[in-house]
Specification:
The complex is a heterotrimer of chains A (204), B (496) and C (247). Chain A is α/β, with parallel strands linked by helices and 204 residues long. Chain A is built from seven helices and twelve strands. Chain A has a single domain, classed as Rossmann fold (3-Layer(aba) Sandwich). Chain A has a six-stranded parallel beta sheet with strand order 1-12-7-4-2-3, sandwiched between helices. In chain A, strands 8-5-6-9 form a four-stranded mixed beta sheet. Chain B is an alpha/beta fold and 496 residues long. Chain B folds into three domains: 122 residues, no CATH class; 237 residues, Rossmann fold (3-Layer(aba) Sandwich), CATH 3.40.50.10420; 57 residues, no CATH class. Chain B has a six-stranded parallel beta sheet with strand order 1-10-7-4-2-3, sandwiched between helices. A four-stranded mixed beta sheet of chain B has the order 8-5-6-9, sandwiched between helices. In chain B, a hairpin with a 4-residue loop joins strand 5 and strand 6. Chain C has 13 helices and eight strands. In chain C, helix 11 crosses helix 12. The longest helix of chain C is centred in the last third of the chain and has 17 residues. Classes of the chains: A alpha/beta (204), B alpha/beta (496), C alpha/beta (247). At the A-B interface, helix 1, helix 5, helix 6, strand 9 and strand 10 of A face helix 3, helix 4, helix 5, helix 9 and helix 11 of B. Chain A: It holds the Pfam family LUD_dom. Chain A: This is LUD domain-containing protein. Chain A: It comes from Salinisphaera hydrothermalis (strain C41B8). Chain C: Pfam families: CCG (PF02754).
Chain lengths: 204, 496, 247
């Protein structure tokens, strides 16, 4: 059996014998809108193409009401709403010591995103926002509060952030779970959430 | 990703009457016969046409996605350069990755080959009393025959990617690296699920079938003792790795059970986190035409109270690094774009390759795993070159296919009859006189022989197409002599 | 400037009109063209199958025949690719290098070297689907393949647009391989035939009466497939159209 030292020695002996420097990678975001509204519009366009929904709160509407309105066809009086955010109360708190399996009956998980990416309509979470990572996949639906001011232009910018360096788990969600594995027919909710709704909410 | 349209439903009703073509698998020690497996596939016209159209649709969506990125070709260049840099410094980056991962609290293992990998994972499972495992799709684990091995030691592995699960339930290999069941019609899936999940055999709606699988798999996910994933990228700088899925199944596999084991090929290393910007932008656009997979998951350390293991697998990769013709195949990020553009893959179906890696990618990877068994595969190509042009890391795929032909011919891995025929052709074409005589006899045969003598199984050309007519003016050579040289002398110009 | 005309083996044997059109076309532009009489083949059939050693004598004969010419022109993209990029079974002498560096495919020669502005003698009042052979498109750079991003261009179409009356139509998969692929056509006849029939059908749906190409090998394959299934579409080499072939 070859272990670490053998494998590394083989690589050292076999690797191509020339030097190839790492290239400099431009940011490629000159053509993105420079204002927050423009970036948000780009974000929404891609999010919707990827199967996500954008729910703009109406005047004087509570976030709770916005969520209920956006998920009207998915919620009933008995729905279990697990909220990790202060702005929406929900009826099930997620605690760090909950076992993942204990979250199997959650209908809606409500999370705050760390940031968004306009290029792909992506929202980002780490374990800090998730509390129990699995809740974002075991829930039937996901509601995400996103501060529009945190939307990055593209993935190059997104990967210049520091979030990943300390987080144990950093995940990009772009719309809900999806598959086209049967005859190329697009189906939402293959294994994870069936829907993903983003509500713009500035961080207070 | 396409939405359902009514014509597909009609197609599917007919497909019920057309069984899924299942090419015979080559036995151990046998050469895979791609041509005959492809013939079998084409004998099921509904499956064949649907496969070509669906896989071509992925190529078209890839084109449309690339068209929205002005810097697309530059990104391909950058991705290729980053991989070149990473592979020429692979020992350093691999050590950095392993050390960082260990510092993050991850258990790091090293596997020299497939057997090592399977044994190492088995030991981890044995230590934890694991009996039930959920896993997301991993080509590396396919390469290692992992599921088969685990069946042998009584550990239950459940695939959580829908396509891979369909293939597992049907006891069939995946046919495509991204869409493992793309060769199946929905009626085929309906039959498989009716038998294995107890779904309605008369319902072949894709939404219904997907939901059936979701309902059947969820309890297995909640009940699993361990979860397994592969990795698309491993980042030296952080010791973390990235998994890209559309279903969220890797996140379920990694986050629901307490124990997460990730199998990672040593070539997956990229130096820096910022390199991911380049690769994530290219990966799903190349694969399916979407700007990103629905889930891009960065695992760096175990969840509190959990345990994470990484198995770094060589399995021939360090050896391939030494070959100056083929080392760049290690740049591959398994997007499947080369398959989607390949006209031969689309017409023959992935199972016809009889190998873990199918399509153009398989043509250059499989012979490095078993040269004799896969010696026919580099010939299953027209060398049209579109694979090279779609490759997001700019592997010169079609040139490597061409190189493999030479390697196999020189190592006497191609059939003797083929080599001796070509040697005879080489002798004829090296002699002007023999060449002229050959043309004369070909013309004579075509003019005088009856069809039954021209069109038989010895004439592979004539199996699917007619032979050309004999030109009235004879050969160009004859014409030139008659019109441009001494018209009186029938041998003018010929060298004796 | 003396041009050596290379008429590849299958054109010599079955499509002499392609060689004749190439010769006449070059002469119309005042070129001094010679046809070396002992030529046979470029070695491609063997090399295409990985049998380089078996191609060495053929490659040497090719070089012997053409080394004395300033330029070599051939109406076949795949043969020019073989000569330029893969004629490696023989020692790379000065003669071999000269031949490899100075061999041109006809369209390239007309478009890039002669920079032809007009074909006043040519009329082709038909709907034409142009077949980009994979070798001319991706190995010789005749145009922008559909899978690459960048400005569109096509040397053969630029030439054909100068022909009076011609109407170019485009199949839905503009540069899908027709399935010839050299020895692939006989080692994988079913896949090859299927690709050929699909290609013809795609051109047919686009309304093409003729399929025109710079590679006779692709045309020979497609023509054979068309005859087998009774498809009415016709085939011409681009040299014939540019040289004023009526139909």
């Amino acid at each position: 059996m070859r272990g670490r030292n053998d494998i590394l020695a083989d690589i050292r002996a076999n690797k191509p014998k020339f030097t190839a420097p790492a290239p400099a990678v431009p940011n490629y975001d000159d053509h993105y809108p420079s204002d927050a509204a423009g970036l948000q519009a780009r974000f929404i366009e891609v999010l919707e193409k990827m199967g996500g929904a954008w729910a703009e709160p109406e005047a004087n509407e509570s976030l709770e009401a916005t969520m209920r309105r956006a998920l009207a066809d998915k919620l009933d009086a008995n729905s279990l709403i697990a909220s990790n955010v202060r702005e929406i109360k929900g009826n099930r708190r997620v605690h760090a010591d909950d076992t993942p399996a204990s979250l199997h009956d959650v209908d809606v998980a409500v999370l705050r995103a760390r940031f968004g990416v306009a290029e792909t309509g992506t929202v980002c979470f780490t374990e800090a926002e998730l509390t129990v990572n699995a809740v974002a996949y075991l829930a039937q639906h996901l509601v995400v509060l996103l501060d529009p001011a945190t939307i990055e232009t593209n993935l190059h910018r997104a990967y210049q952030r520091d979030d990943y360096k300390n987080a144990r788990y950093t995940v990009f969600h772009t719309g809900p779970s999806a598959t086209a594995d049967i005859e190329g027919v697009l189906v939402r909710g293959a294994q994870g959430v069936r829907s993903l709704t983003v509500i713009p909410t500035p961080t207070v | 990703m396409s939405t359902p349209d009514p014509s597909q439903t009609q197609n599917s009703a007919e497909a019920v009457r057309e069984a899924q073509p299942k090419p015979a698998k080559a036995r151990p020690g046998q050469r895979v016969n791609h041509a005959s497996a492809a013939r079998e596939f084409l004998q099921s016209p509904i499956h064949a046409q649907s496969h070509d159209e669906r896989v071509w649709a992925m190529r078209q969506r890839r084109d449309a996605a690339a068209e929205t990125i002005p810097e697309w070709e530059e990104l391909r260049d950058l991705a290729s350069q980053i991989k070149t840099h990473a592979l020429t410094h692979l020992d350093e980056y691999l050590e950095q990755f392993a050390d960082n991962a260990a510092a993050n609290g991850v258990h790091v293992h090293w596997a020299g080959d497939a057997a090592d990998h399977n044994r190492i994972v088995h030991e981890i499972f044995a230590d934890h009393g694991v009996k039930k495992v959920i896993k997301s799709k991993s080509m590396l684990m396919e390469e290692c025959g992992f599921r088969h091995y685990m069946e042998g030691v009584g550990i239950d592995i459940v695939e959580t990617d829908l396509g891979e699960r369909i293939q597992q339930l049907d006891a069939e290999d995946p046919s495509h690296v991204v869409v493992p069941a793309v060769h199946k019609m929905r009626s085929d899936v309906s039959q498989v699920f009716a038998k294995t999940l107890g779904s309605d055999p008369d319902n072949d709606d894709a939404h219904y079938l997907t939901e059936q699988q979701r309902q059947a798999t969820r309890p297995l996910i909640l009940d699993a003792d361990a979860g397994m994933t592969g990795a698309n990228f491993a980042v030296a700088e952080t010791g973390g790795f990235v998994v890209c899925t559309n279903e969220g199944n890797a996140d379920l596999s990694a986050n629901v059970p307490n124990l997460h084991v990730a199998s990672i090929g040593i070539e997956k290393i990229v130096p820096k986190l910022s390199d991911l910007g380049v690769f994530i932008r290219l990966l799903s656009r190349s694969a399916l035409g979407s700007p990103i997979t629905q889930y891009t998951s960065h695992f760096r350390a175990p969840k509190p109270g959990g345990e994470m293991h990484i198995v770094l697998v060589d399995n021939g990769r360090s050896k391939r690094l030494a070959d100056e013709r083929f080392w760049s195949s290690l740049k591959c990020i398994r997007c499947g774009a080369c398959m989607n553009t390949c006209p031969v893959f689309r017409r023959s179906g992935g199972l016809s390759y009889g190998a873990t890696y199918t399509g153009p990618l398989g043509l250059i990877l499989d012979p490095s795993i078993d040269a004799y068994r896969y010696s026919n595969l580099p010939f299953a190509s027209t060398l049209n070159g579109s694979c090279t042009n779609v490759c997001p890391v700019k592997i010169n795929i079609h040139e490597q296919i061409f190189e493999w032909r030479q390697v196999l011919a020189e190592d006497d891995m191609i059939p003797w009859t083929k080599k001796s025929t070509l040697a005879a052709a080489g002798r004829t074409l090296a002699s002007p006189r023999a060449y002229r005589a050959a043309i004369k006899s070909a013309h004579s045969a075509l003019k005088h022989l009856p069809d039954w003598a021209l069109y038989n199984k010895l004439n592979a050309w004539g199996q699917v197409r007619d032979l050309p007519d004999v030109p009235a003016e004879g050969s160009f050579h004859d014409w030139y002599r008659q019109h441009r040289l001494n018209k009186e002398d029938p041998t003018a110009g010929d060298r004796e | 400037m003396r041009i050596g005309l290379f008429v590849p083996c299958f054109i010599d044997a079955f499509y002499p009109q392609v060689g004749i059109a190439t010769l006449e076309l070059l002469e119309r532009f005042g070129c001094d063209v010679d046809y070396p009489f002992d030529q046979t083949c470029c070695g491609q059939p063997m090399v295409n199958s990985g049998c380089h050693a078996e191609a060495a004598a053929t490659e040497q004969l090719f070089v012997d025949n053409f080394a004395d010419y300033d330029v070599i022109v051939a109406p076949s993209g795949s043969c020019v690719h073989q000569i330029r990029d893969n004629l490696t079974a023989v020692e790379q002498t000065a003669a071999v290098k000269h031949v490899r560096e100075n061999t041109f495919e006809l369209v390239e020669y007309l478009h890039d070297v002669l920079k032809v502005e007009a074909f006043p003698w040519a009329k082709f009042p038909h709907r034409v689907g142009y077949h980009d052979s994979c070798n001319t498109l991706r190995n010789l750079g005749h145009g922008k393949p559909s899978e690459l991003r960048g400005p569109d261009f096509s040397k053969p179409r630029a030439l054909l647009h100068k022909v009076e009356g011609i109407e170019l139509v485009s199949p839905s998969r503009p540069d899908e391989c027709c399935g010839f692929g050299g020895t692939f056509s006989v080692t994988e006849p079913e896949v090859s035939g299927r690709m050929g029939r699909d290609k013809i059908a795609d051109h047919g749906r686009a309304g093409a009466e003729y399929i025109v190409s710079a590679d006779t090998s692709c045309l020979m394959h497609q023509q054979g497939c068309a005859k087998r299934i009774g498809a009415p579409i016709q085939f011409k080499h681009i040299a014939e159209v540019l040289n004023g072939s009526a139909a």
